[in-house]
Amino acid sequence: MPVPIIPSPHLADVRYEIRGALTRRARELESSGRAIVKLNIGNPARYGFETPMHLREAIAAHLADSEGYGHEQGLEEAREAIAAQQRARGARDVAVERIFIGNGVSELIDLSLRALLQPGDEVLLPSPDYPLWSAATILNGGRPRYYRCLAENGHLPDPAAIEALITPRTRALVLINPNNPTGAVYPRALLERLVAIAERHGLLLLADEIYDEILYDEASFQPLAEVAGAHPCLSFGGLSKVHRACGYRVGWVSLSGDPARTGSYRDALQLLAALRLCANVTAQWAIEPALSGRATIAALTAPGGRLHDARRAVLEGVAASGFLDLVAPAGALYAFPRVRTERLPQFDDNAFALRLLEEEAVLVVPGSSFNVPASRHFRLTLLPPPAQLAEVFVRIERVLSRMAQEQARESAVA
After folding, report:
1. In degrees, to the nearest 5, what angle opens at C-alpha 85 toward C-alphas 80 and 87?
2. Are residue 332 and residue 386 in the same domain, yes or no?
3. 154 lies in a domain?
4. Does residue 253 share a domain with residue 108?
5. Sign of the CA dihedral 109, 310, 403, 24?
6. Dihedral angle over CA of 128, 151, 204, 195, nearest 10
7. For residue 190, which of 141, 164, 156 has the smallest C-alpha distance?
8. For residue 288, which of 10, 79, 179, 294 sits 20 to 30 Å off, Cα-Cα?
9. Which of 192, 251, 247 is nearest to 223 (CA)?
10. Residue 166 belongs to domain with CATH number
11. Per the omega criterion (within 30 degrees of 0), is the bond before 128 cis?
């Protein structure tokens, strides 16, 4: 009898429901002829957003220069542009040799944690988090320690609660700003307190800033590296969101702070980068024009812009609901509504998401997928046209109304 192939036990605690069982069920429904509104992934191209033409033209002009392996850290021209951006933002001790380009930020998150962690080391992660951070921590032998970012606090963390989680095994503090999934944008005063915690306990700061320029209603983005100063900090960015180029798979990480404290760690990053040979060369030619050329995202997030109007449609949909509340997203591409306890006391986010898919052909991500215990939240993207989002909330309301009626009948019988 053939012996089955057993997967690694490391995967037992790894989850990525953004593309998990609900998405597979959505594909099954699509194959049977149903049209599904997919709000699970922040993929601008799916909803008609285009990569700026000057990025496309840069790639086309350099196709002949892209056929061999590149430097393991990335094209020098691209790294120079990233270093210039980081220095302009106030990052200290940034240089070309401290910039790494990867196949998306996802690859670099994995490399940065692999270069840092020993088995059993702890990483402080937000709850909710982008679940790749949890997965990369676990797969590299680490242990996630979650600090809560509650709706009651505007989805901002409590520095005292973070510091209370620190143990002798804690190695790093991760911040996602602007935040995915909540849309929270961290004020400078909060970042200063978090940097002070990292300094007191010798923690490496890791700042996921992929949504740095996607801001609404006068929100202001504060880069962490400028606040961190000489303290070691990794700042992650890329082309996927601000420049609507997810398929290019171009991300970067900048190592700032005192080089004397990070020299060995920088060398470890270079070794890991060399082991995967290099990042996609072709798409790296888009980095310099993206960072030095005309900005294109502000027109989409300003009043009258597509993303601004989509966000407004979500806010109006929540305001009209008898079941939902929401901390208005100040940045990024998502909203994280919450179902009110008094309206649906026995709410289950996974059961709701499945019913919404099966009954109303709308795919969202349950809040528990972002490592939120006992979640009453769900995440949806702001990328669809505003009219479609308005219709989505009509469908959401129908499902929640049916759930409330069923719970009321069950309570009456009991």
Report:
1. 95
2. yes
3. yes
4. yes
5. negative
6. 170
7. 156
8. 179
9. 192
10. 3.40.640.10
11. yes
